[in-house]
Structure formats: structure tokens, C-alpha cells
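Hello again, I could really use a second opinion on something today. Take your time with it, there's no hurry, and the full record follows here:

___
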Amino acid sequence: MKYFWVLGFVSLLLAGCARGFDLNWTEVVYDGEVAVGGPPLFVPLTLIQSAAAKGAVCLDGSLPGYHLHRGFGYGANSWLVQLEGGGWCSDIRMCLFRKKTRRGSSYYMEKQLQFTGILSNKPEENPDFYNWNRVKIRYCDGASFLGEGYNMAAGLFFRGQRIWLAAMEDLMSKGMRDANQALLTGCSAGGLAAIHHCDGFHALFPASTKIKCFADAGMFLDAVDVAGRRTLRSFFGGLVNLQGVSRNLPRTCTSHLNPTLCFFPQNVLSTVQTPLFLLNSAYDVWQLQESLASKAADPHGYWQDCNMNNAKCNTGQIQFLQGFRNQMLNCVEKFSLSSKNGLFINSCFAHCQSERQDTWFGNSSPAVSNKGIAKSVGDWYFDRSQVKIIDCPYPCDRTCHNLVFNGRH
């Protein structure tokens, strides 16, 4: 039986700066199964005490942290590391606001988080990874764990790369160095980070360790918006310049492209040597609302209804979105040819499908040709089969858990 499940998101309100945040939506309604089975798992926050000496601090100078739930049984030597998402900040004003939130300071982080979806410890919710060591690294730098710099006047630390390194060192000391297999993953800004850090993660381990990476909703495209401008390219340009990201981008890309373009996953996929799986919606709602049809690009609200509910998109809007889908498919075409890589692109109006239980693994989870997301990722990771799944265009998929928004985003 289906229920309406209402998610209350903490609204990070900053007038005119919605693009600085991952999910700047106060209420989301979608039609899906309510997860069942056992009490919820809440995992405490661990601050990385050694990080301060390395200058590996959040935007406000506080210690970074993570949530770790130990594996057991045959999964005791396997590690899943998830990089938290949460948008970006591309100018001083946005970063100053952000440093007073959980996205920029550990002082505001939840002391414990519920682990669901790919982080669940229940086999009926997460059949392939439930008994692994599962880690969620908190995101408090605003540049997908890639920044390096400091703004003295504003008191802002741009230390994403150092946070990444400090977290890896701490986890290695807690047993990850002995892993026989590991998976680096992340959602949204964390998914983008998983792509950029994939080979660096692989390099931490001996050649005998099985290492793969999995990016959920991390394929942010350098797309033209409804006003004919490149909103996200402009935004990322400010981010890369402010936070000193260019030095941590692959030289194989920056040697021939502007660093801003090398922040976009589409321009670095070919440089990633480690096996990588991409999970993405062809109609990513974050990109629709904040890149393709943002308030700045759509000042008269022509796209307002479509942004809130895909069922209200008119024929012309759907045609525009089909062009966006085609661009995404073109960007991953060469990537998908490699036998080591995996792909699951469905035609849902969604964003991040591995963290939510209803979309990761459930009785009515999204599926393409009767194959769901968790099964697809597991089959790819464990080499049970190759996975190159691309859905038919909207509105053919009736298994989607499309996000519907209440109120102006």
C-alpha cells in the first residue's frame, strides 16, 4: 500500500542565493512506500581531533567530523565511505551565511544521524552493504571537499581538500587500511566530490584491495538555462576562484580547459581510472530549479508550476527538458563504453536516490526493466553483471518517486 510521505527539510534561506544550497526546499511530498523493519539506526558524530593541527577545518574553523557504524560478520573488513552533499558557496556573503549552519560548522551539526538507504544496517533495506563499515563524512567546506585557501577579512577557511585528507587518515587508522574492499560514494555535491576524489581514494590502498566509486546525482551539467545563459558555469566560476579549487583539479583537464570547466564532472569523467558508477535522474530537480529554470533565469515565473510539479510542465517545457536529457546521455556515452563502469539513468524528477530508503530498496522502488537501483549498484560492484541502464524518456516510467514541492522554492 502506498502512502504520502512528507519530508521536512531544514530550510537554509538566503535571499537570492538558493543555488548555494543543495536542497533549499521546505517541504517535499512524494508517493512511496514507508520503510518497515526494526528500530531506526542513529549513529553519533565523531569529530576529527587531529584535523586542527593540519588546518583541516570547516568554514568557521571548527573541527570536521563523520558518523561511523562498524561492520560485522563477513562485512567486517569492507568499507563504504559516503561524502555528504549540501550545495556550495561561491561568494563571501554566501559562505558567511553558511558558516553559521551545519554546512559550514560542526557546532551546528546534528550529534547523531539516521542511517538509511545505502547506509542502512538491515539486510531487508540494504542487501549488499548492510554489514559493511559505513561512514558518512560531514560536509562543511562548501566546495565539494576540494578547496584550499583562507580569507582573513571574513574569517573563512576554505579547506575542503585538507578535510578530505584528514578524514581519510583518521579512518585508515581505525581499520580502513586493512579493508579487503571499499566503495567511495556521495550524493549531490558529495557525488561530484566522489568523482573528483575517486582515484585519490583508490591510491590509499594496496593494489590487492577492491576499490570502486559510486556517484549519486553528481552529474551537474554545463547546460544553457531557459534564458540562454550558463547559470551554473557562472556560479561554479565564482566557487573555483574564491575557494582555490583549481589546484586540486586533475591536471589532465586543467592543462587544456579552464579550471571552472574542470569542476564539471562531464569534463573529468575520462580522466577517472577507477571503476565508477553513475546514478542520476535525466531530469534532476535540483538542476531544473537552480540551474535550468532558476528565479534569475525565469523572473516572470513561467516555469514556476513545472518546477514544483512535473505533472504541470507544458509541452514546450517538456521538450526543453528532453534536450537536457539528451545532453546528459551524450556526456556519459563514452564513459559507458568501458566495461569497468556502471550506469543507471532513470527518467524521474528526483535528486539523490541512494540515501532515501524508498528509492534505494523497497517494494515499490524505482526500476528500469524491473531492475532497481540497489540491485544495479550491487551487481556492478560485485561483478555479478555489467550494468548500463538508461530509461526511456519521460513520461514512460511509472515506477518513479517524483518529488513534488509545496511553496516557492
The chain is about 25% helix and 20% strand. Residues 315-337 form the longest helix (23 residues).
